[in-house]
Design goal:
This protein is of the alpha/beta class. The chain folds into two domains: 85 residues, 3-Layer(aba) Sandwich (Rossmann fold), CATH 3.40.50; 124 residues, NAD(P)-binding Rossmann-like Domain (Rossmann fold). It is built from ten helices and eleven strands. The strands form three sheets. The protein has a six-stranded parallel β-sheet with strand order 1-11-8-7-5-6. Helix 6 packs across helix 7. The longest helix has 24 residues. It is globular and about 55 Å long. Bound molecules: NADPH dihydro-nicotinamide-adenine-dinucleotide phosphate and 5,10-Methenyltetrahydrofolate. 5,10-Methenyltetrahydrofolate (GUE) binds next to helix 2, strand 4 and helix 10. Its EC number is 1.5.1.5, 3.5.4.9. It comes from Lacticaseibacillus baoqingensis. Belongs to the tetrahydrofolate dehydrogenase/cyclohydrolase family. Homodimer.
């Protein structure tokens, strides 16, 4: 029987605990606060930002949505970030990616105070992650580890294969799995004989943005399959990077899209925002 790794249910369970933590923090005079900056009007980004806002509100986290026009200059954006860096009531700052053309993504990421970089994209946090030091970790890979932990899946010693090497998913996923003692293989668009690599995976994590590219013949029977993709197929339907109908019968466990990795990403963002806010309690005393 294939286990469906239910990200929505898991995220809801984790959020019940987190809500209690937020209540305790508030009683100690600290209201966790997350600022999300969205530049432009990309419809998919707007949906994700709205989901984050809803989740924050339901937990009692203060959520600031800063919507800027697509004509915003890099200097203006850096100015807004500088204000949030200086505001001691703000714990987490997230700038939704992708940014409009003409804005240097790395310049923006590096302008966020590493302590408030709730995405874990700042090179300081990336360096901490690869050195296996404590720090903020990118929410999608963090959420995937939390989902595996919830289902009591121990990755130690597993052959983990990651398809995709982006800074927001593939690379931090590799670091986390390595930190948890998996044997990690990274693959990407230049990888030769991809199917041979994926078929060797005990744990397969796919983040390519290519609708349903992972087919049943690319998966080892019994493998754990994590589908990060949020794609539209030719019919306009939301699908993952994995052909779910074909792969699910072969896999030992699999995440659905929607309801898999997406809700865990948002939950992770909330968990790490609260973790940052916790530090303020000690600073106050
Ligand atoms: N659910 C969630 O929480 C999140 C979902 N996503 C979704 O995950 C997907 C990936 O996002 P992201 O990592 O930002 O994407 P990017 O476009 O930044 O990176 C895609 C990666 O996939 C690789 N790739 C592309 N095509 C192939 C192929 N045919 N075979 C092997 N590798 C390939 C690319 O290789 P190369 O480097 O060689 O170009 C690249 O490394 C998207 O669908 C996105 O919407 C993203 C973030 C969070
Ligand atoms: N700075 C930054 N940080 C990010 O973490 C970030 C980003 N930029 N840019 C885009 C990607 C994508 N991402 C998602 C978050 C939630 C869902 C999500 O909630 N998905 C739901 C429902 C989605 C739907 O129904 O459309 C699900 O899978 O069930 C998906 C994708 C975060 N990202």
């Amino acid at each position: 029987m294939t286990t469906v790794l239910d990200g929505k249910k898991t995220a809801d369970a984790l959020m019940t605990d987190l809500k209690n933590t937020v209540t305790t923090l508030k009683a100690q005079g600290v209201t966790p606060a997350l600022a999300v900056i969205l530049v432009g009007d990309d419809p998919a980004s707007a949906i994700y930002v709205r989901n984050k806002h809803r989740r924050a509100e339901s937990l009692g986290i203060r959520s600031l949505q800063i919507q800027l026009p697509k004509t915003t200059t890099q200097a203006e954006l850096l100015g807004r970030i500088a204000d949030l860096n200086a505001d001691s009531a703000i714990d987490g700052i997230l700038v939704q990616l992708p940014l409009p053309a003409g804005i240097d993504e790395q310049a923006v990421i590096q302008s966020i105070s590493p302590e408030k970089d709730v995405d874990g994209f700042h090179p300081i946090n990336v360096g901490r992650l690869w050195t296996n030091l404590p720090g903020v970790v990118a929410s999608t890979p963090y959420g995937i580890m939390a989902l595996l932990a919830y289902y009591q899946i121990d990755v130690s010693g597993m052959n983990a294969v990651i398809v995709g090497r982006s800074n927001i998913v593939g690379r931090p996923m590799a670091a986390l799995l390595l930190n948890h003692d998996a044997t990690v293989t990274m693959t990407h668009s230049r990888t030769k004989a991809l199917a041979e690599k994926t078929r060797a995976a005990d744990l397969l994590v796919v983040a390519t943005g290519r609708p349903e590219m992972i087919t049943a013949d690319m998966v080892k029977p019994g493998a754990i399959v994590i589908d990060v993709g949020m794609d539209r197929n030719a019919a306009g339907k939301l699908v993952g990077d994995v052909d779910y109908a074909g792969v699910a019968p072969v896999a030992g466990a699999i995440t659905p899209v929607p309801g898999g990795v997406g809700p865990m990403t948002i939950a992770s963002l909330m968990i790490q925002t609260v973790a940052i806010a916790k530090r303020r309690v000690h600073e106050q005393q």
